[in-house]
Design goal:
The longest helix has 15 residues. The protein is α/β, with parallel strands linked by helices. It is built from six helices and five strands; from the N terminus they run βαβαβαβαβαα. It has one domain: HUPs (Rossmann fold). It is globular. It has a five-stranded parallel beta sheet with strand order 3-2-1-4-5. It binds coenzyme A. Coenzyme A binds next to strand 1, helix 1, helix 4 and helix 5.
């Protein structure tokens, strides 16, 4: 599809679930912008620049993917970057309620931008960034869930 899609998230940190989704998106869209939200409300563990760096490293092998940070309204940032599609992942039914609100709000804010959903591979359906951080903080092995660079950053942070 000759379209630019924007994939927003906090990515604190990026996991294999996120990269799986981006990889799927590159098969559908010409360009995928992975937009790392500053999201101070969520009090991220990693500062924005570090989250951007980890995402860039984890996605380095994929063509047509750009990673950048943003600290404003998503629809404004999408417009500025020429993206008319917001891409989100739906893992389990419980994701739906939040996604329903997010898509509805974004549509109200800019009716010209559509939200589309992709499903990550089943083996990633249960991953979340907070669970990965919890496991890492307790000395558990998270190598099945995150890129090696993210693992290194996690062990530095948790030390
Ligand atoms: N695989 C694995 N995990 C996934 C995943 C996937 N495919 N998709 C989401 N997750 C996890 C994340 O790791 C995250 O886990 P955590 O809560 O344990 O950290 C959780 O699901 C939620 O992440 P996500 O769905 O990406 O939401 P978010 O809260 O990180 O991002 C924004 C929300 C950034 C999209 C939203 O706050 C936003 O648009 N902000 C910009 C400002 C704005 O415009 N606000 C108004 C919106 S109407």
């Amino acid at each position: 599809m000759k379209q630019t899609a924007i994939y927003p998230g906090t990515f604190d940190p990026i996991t294999h679930g996120h990269t799986d989704l981006v990889e799927r998106a590159t098969r559908v869209f010409d360009r995928v912008i992975v937009a790392v939200a500053a999201n101070p409300v969520k009090k991220p563990t990693f500062p924005l620049e570090e989250r951007i760096g980890m995402a860039a490293a984890a996605l380095a092998g994929l063509t047509g993917v750009e990673v950048c940070g943003f600290d404003r309204l998503l629809v404004e940032f999408a417009r500025e970057r020429g993206a008319s599609i917001i891409l989100r992942g739906l893992r389990v039914v419980s994701d739906f309620e939040y996604e329903f609100q997010l898509a509805g709000m974004n549509r109200k804010l800019d009716p010209g931008i559509e939200t589309l959903y992709l499903m990550p591979a089943e083996q990633y359906a249960f991953i979340s960034s907070s669970l990965v951080k919890e496991i890492a903080s307790l000395g558990g092995d998270v190598s099945a869930f995150v890129h090696a660079g993210v693992m290194a950053a996690l062990s530095r942070k948790m030390r």
